[in-house]
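Researcher: We're teaching a course module on how sequence relates to structure. For the next exercise, students receive a sequence and then see the predicted structure as tokens, so they can try to spot secondary structure elements on their own. Here is the exercise chain.
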Amino acid sequence: MEYFFSGFKLITQKGLKRFVFIPLLINIALFIGSMFLLIIKFEEWITALINWLPDILSWLEWIIWPTAIFVTIFSYGMLFTVITNFIAAPFNGLLSEKVELHLTGQKINDDGFAELLKDVPRMLGREWTKLCYYLPRAIGFFILLWVLPVIGQILWVLFSCWMFAVQYQDYAFDNHKISFKQMKTDLQSKQGLSYGFGFAVMLLTAIPLVNLIVMPVAVCGGTKLWVDNFRSQYRNQ
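Model: And here is the predicted structure for the students to work with:
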């Protein structure tokens, strides 16, 4: 958890602030815009659904509201995370690169802006790989929440911690062109670090307003974790 919280200090460091600004601005803009749309449309959607029901099923209204709220929050959280990660991926990768330079004094590469633009499709492809890894598991654990609520909740929390660790530690691995499969293997070799880091991200993500700065903080903290625990084994490769 300490690695995640170290990200709060890193985002204020001279030379890093400007690289924090863009992903932070993307996060805030998407959050405000999507929440505004959701608040305006939610009641309208539910009212339309209830009016669509035949009179004989009107008693379902008391079930529809709490169910719709739960499903909407779950779907919104998942969709919001997916969209922001896709849009911010190139900027998060750049932020991770600059954090590593700040911590080690060594550049990852000497590529210019043109080379960075060429890397954007690869970065977006990496996000797609993470999404393909996440979705079927998320759906499975979501179903388990309804079948075995207690066990399902425990497993959902553990899975969320793992996915937050994968999401935000992966930028440093990807900057060094380390495969997604190898990245997972490395994180699994240090599960205490991975789950502790992911748990901290999950906790702060659940706090309104604070969650708006979690993404750049987690990228910075995840990069520091990479530098301290994984970077040395790849330096000569």
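Model: If you want an answer key for the exercise: Residues 2-28+90-229 form one domain. Residues 93 and 171 are 5 Å apart (CA to CA).
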